[in-house]
Model the fold of this input.
Amino acid sequence: VSTPLDYPIGSRPEAGSTIEVKPGVLWVRMPIPIPGLDTINLWLLADGEGWTLVDTGLKHKPIKEHWETIFARHLGGKPVTRIVATHMHPDHIGQAGWLTERFGCRLWITQREWLFARMLSLDSLPEPPETAVAFYRRLGFDEAALAEFRSWGYGNFARGVTPIPTSFRRIRDGEEIAIGGRRWRVIVGEGHSPEHACLHSPELGLLISGDQVLPKISPHIGVYPSEPEMNPLGDYLASLPRLKVVPDETLVLPSHGDPFLGLHRRLDALSHHHDARLEALAAACAEPRVLVDVLPVLFKRELNARSRFMAAHEALAHVNLLIARGQVERVTGADGVLRFRATSRSEAAA
Ligand SMILES: [Zn+2]
Done:
């Protein structure tokens, strides 16, 4: 059930242009040239003799050109003096390497996001490691799907980003950053990415929510071959309530979709959305199930080869939370493929 939210801005900036959402706060919108993804919102904050930029866009030539247009026409001749990244996904951090060089400024980011970005940018291989192939085989992908997976190469992250800066300024949960004489408090969320920073300015009544809270879609939360037993959905649901310290009348500036009012309703709706999916999945596991066979429980739309892998990451995130709660157990079949089945505890809960 979607929650009615209010979208008070009423217009959107064209590529290469900006809209002022509050005094000294500019909204920039950039394309994301990946099917299924539409645009990303980036924010310019007036900061004395320069500008602080929050998130940067994917590595992509037209995006660089849009930036040059904005620098030439919309910043009053002032430079970018600081880059803040909410998290390390390429649509957010992709141009940070180029921009920190172009302006001789620093990247401000949480430690785990920087570490992951550096690590992934160096972890580029012509073929996936066997541990990754084995991970998907245990989830029930057949040899034809695995052959296709092999053909995609490994380490797509590096392709989407300009070189991740080799030095950074760490930001931490609870820290207050002064930007243009106003305080922005860092609120860390987990689950979508390792240590995602939201920025809250009580004075301006604004929350830059990154991907942690989006108005129309729920952020992608996945389990990957690097850590098959991780529980990012548990982390996400545990960290969402931290945002309730932000007053409900705050204007939320999300990375995708339009600025909105109704933060607390949206936080509740995101929790309920996952609760419903967890319940459906636990019910589906009354019989032992292979992961690829439960994808239709969570995804009603047709999945192509690539989106089946993405869907498996998300489904496993739900399964791993059910395992952490003791509602589902993981057993290895004689064929080496994992089966997930509800425990007696799950029946007691139902
Ligand atoms: Zn993201």
